[in-house]
Write a structure and sequence with these properties.
Length: 189
């Protein structure tokens, strides 16, 4: 099989159920989830398997689920096949958020993205995830989507925030609070 097909040379690409322009909102949405997956792979490559065995397993699952998101976003009509992203995936993210959040110290103010290499790269993942979510919201205004993808991406950005803090904690690096922030977060109970 050849890698190149030449079918996109005129500015269109194949999606599940037809062809669309390469700058279509649908392509922008699933293309950004693919970009996110690449940044996530980069973040994982910076993780010491001895320090992050649990997180590496969870993130590998997220990588597969991001492919599921892209697949659902590339689907023109649901009647072509069932959606892949489910409410269970969102609930799993919530469980992971709670688990990793329990590992970190309380915060009361906004924090600046950064710290160690792992944390910094996970913050990039968080912001690309938010962009993907915005693009999915735009797409949903005019085209049919799986609403669970939007929920998944919303929760996933929270997950990236949480594990960026976890990474700093495991590396012994303190989060840097945004000094002009009021206290906006409640302490863990």
């Amino acid at each position: 099989m050849k890698i190149y097909t030449r079918t996109g040379d005129a500015g269109q690409t194949g999606v599940i159920g037809g062809r669309v322009d390469k700058d279509d909102d649908r392509v922008e949405a699933y293309g950004t989830t693919d970009e996110l997956n690449s940044f996530l792979g980069q973040a994982m490559s910076f993780m010491d398997p001895q320090k992050y065995p649990d997180l590496l397993l969870d993130l590998l699952q997220v990588q597969h689920e991001l492919f599921d998101c892209g697949s659902d976003l590339a689907l023109l009509k649901q009647d072509l096949r069932p959606y892949k992203v489910t409410a269970d995936m969102v609930e799993a993210l919530e469980t992971w958020i709670d688990k990793y959040d329990a590992e970190t110290p309380d915060i009361t103010r906004f924090i600046l993205p950064g710290g160690g290499t792992v944390s910094s790269t996970l913050h990039v993942c968080r912001t690309v995830c938010r962009r993907a979510e915005r693009l999915v919201v735009t797409l949903a205004r005019t085209q049919e989507i799986n609403p669970e993808v939007r929920r998944y991406l919303n929760r996933l950005s929270d997950f990236f925030f949480t594990i960026a803090r976890t990474a700093n904690f495991r590396e012994g690096i303190a989060d840097v609070e945004y000094i002009r922030s009021a206290e906006v977060f409640k302490r863990k109970s």
